[in-house]
Amino acid sequence: MKDEPVGTDETRPAEAAGPADDAAGPGGAADERDDRWLQALDLLLTEQRFRIGQYTAAHAVPACPTEPSEAERRRRAGAAPAAPVTVPEPPVWQLLDALPLAAMVVLPALDETGAIADFCYVGHNVAARRYAESHFPPGALPPHTGAVPLFDRFPNLADTPVPRMLAEAHRTRRPQGPESAEWSLSGPDGRAVRLSSEVRVAPFGDLLLVTWERGEQAGVRMAEAAQHLARVCWAEWNLGDGTVEATGLDRVLGLEPSDPLPDLLELGRMLAPDSRRALYQAVHDALLREREIVDLELRMTSPHERILRFIAEPVRPRLGPVWTMRAVCRDVTSDVRSRTLAEQAMQEARAQRERADAVADVAERLRDAIVPRFPAELGRHGVEAAAVYRPEGRAARVGGDWYKTRVLPSGQVLIALGDARGHGLDAITLMAKLRYALAGLAFTGEAVERLTGWLNLVACDDGEESTATAIVARYHPDRALLRWTCAGHPLPILIRDREARLLDPPPSGPGMPLGVWTEEAYTAAETLLHPGDVVLLYSDGLIERRGSDLDRDSSRLVRAVHDSARDGIPPGGEALDAYIRRLVDRLTGPHMQDDATILAFRLVGRDVVGG
Fold first, then answer.
1. Residue 486 belongs to what H/E stretch?
2. Which residues lie across from 95 on neighbouring strands?
3. Helix (H/G/I), strand (E/B), else coil: 388
4. Residue 252: which of 284, 219, 277, 229 has the closest Cα?
5. In this model, does residue 610 exceed pLDDT 50?
6. Sheet with 499-502: strands ordered across
7. Are the C-beta atoms of residues 405 and 375 closer than 8 Å to each other?
8. pLDDT tens digit string along 142-163?
9. What is the pTM assigned to this prediction?
10. pLDDT 10s digits, 35-46
């Protein structure tokens, strides 16, 4: 069944009349159909206003007569006059203590000319004392013994609107406020408390009454700030009188502050043609089909091009028609664009996969790319390396583990190992981007902190789900120094004199994984190496076990490394390779839940005799 607006044939869009209308040809006919969806929405809202009017008339409460009846007039005429009522005058402080608001009494101190010279704090009520006990630091105020200068007792109040409000209330004899006042009060221990209230000042004879409370404005400002950060707003469209109540709707729609808020029909005029139909159908289903929630994306063309997430619910009185459409709207333009780019990347990845001869062949090629050969010149720079990659138990589910070693033009050695999130083509794609990006960026000669930051930007640009962990290191042969960063990755292990331990993290701690936050700043740790030292980089698949925790897994790995190196590691690349293969066999099994990679590099020296 086609989606058609309700109403007569004259008000239906041309699409609703069937294929015969296509004979009108392109151009003006399409514009006319777009306008008819707006006409249909207008008709739908008009009919709803009529239903609301009928409901209101049927449920109206008859007004009471304003004129008394003849019998009531005769009864009132014969009644005895009422005795005068005597109202007792309570003491002033009892009256103030009865107020539920915190209040203090201030006396303006005048000079010879009648101008205000100062304000004196006279006293406070019970609510103010309770406020002070719950909000002020202990011992922040001396006991109240009488009138004192207000700003001697509360110095930081002088930088708030309170002095001006006091002066205006005294001059005009009119209440002032409410206004927001934020100030601080320090205790004897130096701890300062920030206070925020809505303050009112009112004349009280020759005195001034200052009251304050935790107002709604602070909460409103916090809600508006949260809405601004999330690019979200709420709105209520009253279908009875066409009024709109909202917070942040003008900002989400891109309107000027002086522009009126649009009703549902005006909102439809701001939409692209395909979204006008969607808005009509959503309102139609909410009003006539009793749909509880409508959730759709609307493409705006005016005043700016953007995409709006529109989640609305109908609000109605019991057994009555829908009176209000209440909605939460969010600007999802950047989200949709990122999603579109991600979908395009996925389509390209699927196309590449379809061009492969077979899944097994693709997996084998990818594994070969993951386990690159070590450059021959490593040995000439005092380093020998070995690596083992172990895929997870299920064939063809290649993960995102990667590593890279390269001798740079400066003679320094790049050493890195990472783990891209997930499995399959997505993980491989991100792994390849990071690995090849690092290989190129390392030739800039920048420090490892900067290289890691650039890799983080590459991962952030790849999409919300594109995260990875990594250790990025550079070995300086002239100083036997290893400088390295950690982006959410397990810490390296150092084997020295047949003892194993985790290296200490960088000074500011391990950084966040790549792709989480564009502003993350990474710092480097520095480790001086001795001849014969072996450093192990590894992925979490080597140690993580279901139901365990990272500290326990890391301790188990350190013990295994220590036990395996107890008899020493003979010199030579083949011996180093054999050592880490035995280590991987000990730590993994046939039913691995993740792929595992370990990279070992050893500092070679003339005095090395083994292990």
1. strand 481-487
2. none
3. strand
4. 229
5. no
6. 383-390, 596-603, 534-538, 493-496, 499-502
7. yes
8. 887 788 899 888 888 888 999 9
9. 0.43
10. 889 999 999 999
